[in-house]
Amino acid sequence: MRKFLPLLLALLFIALLVATIILVKRAGYAVTYQATSSMPRGLYLLAPVKSIARGDIVLFYPPITIRDFLKQQHWLPRSGLIMKYALGVPGDYVCRRQNELWINRKKVAHIYHKTSSDLSLPQQKFCGKLGKTQYFLISIFVPNSFDSRYFGAVERGYILGKAISINGKFY
């Protein structure tokens, strides 16, 4: 029996590990990898959303109206999910003035008309207060990221969770 003790302990450890993973997933947590350059690359813990504050990183499904464009450009990962910072939150005043994005009277980002490969980008006209379930999701990590500047506010229902860096880099 003694010679089977290491095997039994290993099996017990594996069973506990599997049970822990199942419980964590049922609680709404997951691990995701950010592979594109529009956000800091690496591993992220995906946590359920109780509230979203300005500056939080979120993982979301892009609005349906823009998904075909994203797929054609190969900008949409297989998961169909995108990661960005929540820079505009409900109640914020978001406005496009010429080629600049303003949030609460602060210039936040430049709005481009074309990509580096001369592809025309969708242009959204917006100026107003975000509704109770609307968020403006932007990448401040890469200035020419494809984000809410080009597809507008994202409804809370499209946001899957908060992303928290677990690879030691916090931007």
Please count the beta strands (DSSP E, at least 2 residues each). Answer: 11
CATH class: Mainly Beta
Q: Biggest sheet: strands side by side, in what order?
A: 1-2-11-3-4-9-10
The CATH superfamily name is Umud Fragment, subunit A
The biggest beta sheet is recorded as:
7 strands, antiparallel
Number of separate helices: 3
Termini separation comes to 53 Å
Topology:
Elements: H1 5-26, E1 30-34, E2 42-47, E3 57-60, H2 64-72, E4 82-88, E5 93-97, E6 100-103, E7 106-110, E8 127-129, E9 134-138, H3 148-151, E10 154-155, E11 159-165
Antiparallel strand pairs: 1-2, 2-11, 3-4, 3-11, 4-9, 5-6, 5-8, 6-7, 9-10
Q: Could you characterize the architecture of this molecule?
A:
The protein has 171 residues and is of the alpha+beta class. It has a single domain (2-165), classed as Umud Fragment, subunit A, CATH 2.10.109. Helix content is 20%, strand content 31%. The chain has a seven-stranded antiparallel beta sheet. Strands 7-6-5-8 form a four-stranded antiparallel beta sheet, with no helix packed on it.
Describe the structure concisely for a colleague.
Helices cover 20% and strands 31% of the residues. With 171 residues, it is an alpha+beta fold. It has a single domain, classed as Umud Fragment, subunit A (Ribbon), CATH 2.10.109.10.
Keywords, separated by commas or semicolons:
171 residues, seven-stranded antiparallel beta sheet
